[in-house]
Amino acid sequence: MNLKKYFIIGGICALQITFAFAQEEEILVENAAEIDTSALIKMYRNYIDSIDQTLHYEQGTINLKNNIATIDVPRGYKYLNGNDSEMILTDIWGNPPSEREEDKSLGMLVPINISPLQDSIYTINITYSEEGYIDDEDAQKIDYDELLAGMQEDAKEYNKLRVENGYPTIELVGWASPPYYDHENKKLHWAKELKFGEGEENTLNYNIRILGRKGYLELNAIGGMYVLPKVQQNIADVLQSVNFTEGNKYSDFNPKLDKVAAYGIGGLIAGKVLAKVGILAKLGVVLAKFWKLIALGFVALMGTIKRFFSKDKTKETTAQGGE
Predict the structure, then answer these.
(1) Which residues have CB under 8 Å from 69's CB, separation 6+?
(2) Would you call 173 exposed, middle or buried from its count of C-beta atoms within 10 A (0-12, 13-18, 19+)?
(3) What 8-state DSSP symbol labels residue 284?
């Protein structure tokens, strides 16, 4: 574990301890009015800022995977490099570590004015899978309702493994946005609605696949269901921003040299149903072993901040109504 990880763990633990003492004195719930809410909010924001100072953001054109593809960071976003993104996904959001190199993050697109740890946001994680050329002949023949039913059954089997390893179950509720394939540009996107464990809020996993000569780029938008309209608003810009380089495009496929994947568009949508769908702890991720304790502290913090904001807004509304 590097120094950055120690710093992050220490920060979360410090916040957890602070709020544990407050809860022990029954301050947070019963006597919230006596707390200096601005100080708590400032503490939270300082924590987010301190994490951000360790992260590396970029703009402009980014080369991905040894220049196999590029991304022109779209307006309204910033790019977080692969190492920092992988750390966020595993150490902060509680995803199982990537066992294969190809499953590791190539980076994230993050809305410009926020942090990956901020509440009520989404990020777009980028990976690359070199599993062969995807034959798209089946794209017009797929029954997406039937495909969804099969994916839901697969999810039940996958959940058995998650439970065995100390992670919460993930229910595939349905399509948040049905699959759409742009045949001309070889770009596919769809969205799933997921439910983590007993979480009250469902999760959005918006999937984008950019097809190339030897595989595909995977872009997954991660957030609560409430960010779906925002993602849909920006999806065209994101799709346009990511492209394979010359020699690596779908049209560069050479049947004499290149491997063909064992599945088509339907298999691409159905495969890896629940793989690395990282989500903020407040949406229901219960981390295994040591991290479970840290996550619960962070959840308490987020809930408290929300309550304080709600109380402040109520007071403000009341005051305005009395004027």
Answers:
(1) 63, 128, 210, 212, 217, 242, 243, 244, 245, 248
(2) middle
(3) T
Which residues have C-beta within 8 Å of that of residue 71, sequence separation ≥ 6? Answer: 61, 62, 64, 79, 107, 109, 126, 241, 242
Mean pLDDT, to the nearest integer, of 253-262? 95
What pTM was computed for the model?
Answer: 0.71
Long-range contacts of 29-33 (CB under 8 A, 24+ apart): 32/307, 32/308, 32/311, 33/311
* pLDDT tens digits, 121-137: 788 999 999 999 999 99
Highest mean pLDDT among 4-13, 45-54, 280-289: 45-54
Domains and CATH numbers, the chain: 3-52+289-322 (no CATH), 58-283 (2.60.120.1690)
Q: Are 171 and 195 in contact (CB under 8 A)?
A: yes
* Contact predicate 206/221, CB 8 Å: yes
What's the angle, vertex CA 132, arms to CA 127 and CA 136, rounded to 5?
95
Q: What 3-state class would DSSP assign to 33? A: helix
| Tally of residues, the chain | 323
Q: 3-state class of 105 per DSSP? A: coil
Residue 265: what pLDDT? 95
Between CA 155 and CA 288 the distance in angstroms is 20
CB 319 within 8 A of CB 36: no
Query: What does the alpha-carbon distance between residue 253 and residue 260 come to, in Å, rounded to a whole number?
Result: 9
Distance (Å, rounded) from C-alpha 116 to C-alpha 108? 9
- Which residue has 């994947």 as its token pair? 261
Side chain identity at 244, as an amino acid letter? Answer: F
